[in-house]
């Protein structure tokens, strides 16, 4: 039986890297199985594993709710966070170098967390999100502090058109001196969506320029939509 860590190692990371450079996002199909999705989804009602619950409407973030996990993280989240990061760090470093940003990320996730903790960013940022009928998430960026990693991932825990309708994942690209571009994605249950946290480089006639990006969720028409978000940096609060 192939373990999750082995599946991560066997991913075509060259293609993922190409997709990230070109689009600012990439999809890994079927990273986790149906049982793992259901365990994470049903775990939403557990107590003692979360540090904070957020009702989105209260903060004008949208309509729905989410919970931040507390440390120690569940094994499946820890495995994804630790073992996918080394493949994403070179992408982030290429982006920052292209945009002439004086920052390079360590290739080991533990070292990134050490940078976070030195900046008093010590709170876990992995979260599980729940949307019912009418739920949505406004366009945003997940930064959480001065130390941030510019790529994050989302695991789909429910199936579009079966468990819910609507609720598409939305990315927007704010192109300089032009109208914004919207990208609508429908990953399947068990898929891992990788995407930029806040920007990507784009090559122009005079070199690379910065394209700012935000993400959100369109309105859920029916059913319940669950996702797991994994951010690689820690938070101040």
UniProtKB/TrEMBL annotation:
Organism domain of life: Bacteria
Protein name: Prolyl 4-hydroxylase subunit alpha
Provenance organism: Elizabethkingia miricola (Chryseobacterium miricola)
């Amino acid at each position: 039986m192939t373990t999750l860590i082995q599946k991560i190692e066997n991913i075509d990371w060259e293609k993922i890297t190409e997709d990230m450079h070109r689009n600012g996002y990439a999809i890994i199909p079927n990273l986790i199985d149906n049982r793992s999705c259901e365990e994470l989804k049903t775990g939403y009602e557990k107590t003692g594993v979360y540090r904070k619950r957020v009702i989105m409407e209260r903060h004008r973030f949208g309509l729905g709710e989410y919970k931040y996990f507390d440390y120690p993280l569940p094994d499946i989240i820890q495995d994804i966070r630790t073992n996918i990061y080394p493949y994403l760090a070179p992408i982030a470093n290429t982006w920052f170098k292209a945009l002439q940003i004086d920052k390079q990320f360590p290739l080991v996730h533990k070292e990134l967390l050490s940078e976070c903790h030195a900046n008093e960013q010590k709170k876990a940022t992995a979260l599980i999100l729940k949307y019912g009928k009418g739920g949505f998430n406004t366009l945003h960026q997940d930064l959480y502090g001065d130390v941030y990693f510019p790529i994050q991932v989302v695991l789909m825990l429910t199936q579009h058109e079966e468990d819910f309708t609507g609720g598409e994942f939305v990315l927007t690209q704010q192109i300089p001196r032009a109208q914004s571009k919207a990208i609508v994605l429908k990953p399947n249950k068990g898929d891992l969506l990788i995407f930029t946290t806040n920007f990507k480089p784009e090559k122009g006639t005079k070199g690379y320029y910065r394209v700012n990006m935000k993400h959100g969720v369109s309105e859920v028409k029916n059913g319940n939509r669950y996702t797991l978000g994994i951010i690689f940096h820690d938070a101040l609060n």
